[in-house]
């Protein structure tokens, strides 16, 4: 059965609305409950002494901020057309800033955790010694400072803009230089960070396979990964895979928008782009539209 372009366009416009009305609130509740439960488990003494747990706790904090700021904001904005950022300059800047900050802080922390698991899985005693809480605190501090500074451009370049005489919208500055910087830096982050995760995960997996392949008698007297180390590594793999999938969707969304920029677009193609940008695929639904590039 063939559908008219108007029907397809309307369907693509409605799907993000329904997703944010019915699906996103469920994810919001599950996400918060899951984070609270995980924090409760990781704060137990048996887990707390593990260095990787420290990275996971930071990831959980970042994820909780994202859920309660960015996801909650897009639920009201996209699902119920309630947008306080269009009338309050501080909320406008803060919402975009927190969304961008947490979207880069979380994966970088996952990379630091992946490096820690790579160190722990090494058979070289000197290499394993680098997995320490002291180094973890230093890495987390540097990561926090760099991400905060790198995200500051949102506070400067995002503001409430006049779209029509009586319509105002919180959005990015429309200068070509800034739009180019934001879109291509987001694209680079969405490609580079997953590649680093894949590389570190493969190397750690090889180390684990090497440990498992060594006979028990040859491992006597040599410290190997314990049960909790393996559990944390599997948990880290799951987090990395989820982030890689989400990053792939972001790359597709931005790439599709850039392709349309250089071609004559149909109404359906523009609707597909708006669907990708409005479904929460990219940075909580707040990715800059490549079509705005000059």
TrEMBL record:
<feature type="transmembrane region" description="Helical">
    <location>
        <begin position="55"/>
        <end position="82"/>
    </location>
</feature>
<protein>
    <recommendedName>
        <fullName>G-protein coupled receptors family 1 profile domain-containing protein</fullName>
    </recommendedName>
</protein>
<dbReference type="Pfam" id="PF00001">
    <property type="entry name" value="7tm_1"/>
</dbReference>
<dbReference type="GO" id="GO:0005886">
    <property type="term" value="C:plasma membrane"/>
</dbReference>
<dbReference type="GO" id="GO:0004930">
    <property type="term" value="F:G protein-coupled receptor activity"/>
</dbReference>
<feature type="transmembrane region" description="Helical">
    <location>
        <begin position="136"/>
        <end position="156"/>
    </location>
</feature>
<feature type="transmembrane region" description="Helical">
    <location>
        <begin position="235"/>
        <end position="258"/>
    </location>
</feature>
<dbReference type="GO" id="GO:0042277">
    <property type="term" value="F:peptide binding"/>
</dbReference>
<keyword id="KW-0812">Transmembrane</keyword>
<feature type="transmembrane region" description="Helical">
    <location>
        <begin position="22"/>
        <end position="43"/>
    </location>
</feature>
<feature type="transmembrane region" description="Helical">
    <location>
        <begin position="181"/>
        <end position="205"/>
    </location>
</feature>
<keyword id="KW-0297">G-protein coupled receptor</keyword>
<keyword id="KW-1003">Cell membrane</keyword>
<dbReference type="InterPro" id="IPR017452">
    <property type="entry name" value="GPCR_Rhodpsn_7TM"/>
</dbReference>
<feature type="domain" description="G-protein coupled receptors family 1 profile">
    <location>
        <begin position="34"/>
        <end position="246"/>
    </location>
</feature>
<keyword id="KW-0807">Transducer</keyword>
<dbReference type="InterPro" id="IPR000276">
    <property type="entry name" value="GPCR_Rhodpsn"/>
</dbReference>
<feature type="transmembrane region" description="Helical">
    <location>
        <begin position="94"/>
        <end position="115"/>
    </location>
</feature>
<keyword id="KW-0675">Receptor</keyword>
<dbReference type="GO" id="GO:0043005">
    <property type="term" value="C:neuron projection"/>
</dbReference>
<keyword id="KW-0472">Membrane</keyword>
<keyword id="KW-1133">Transmembrane helix</keyword>
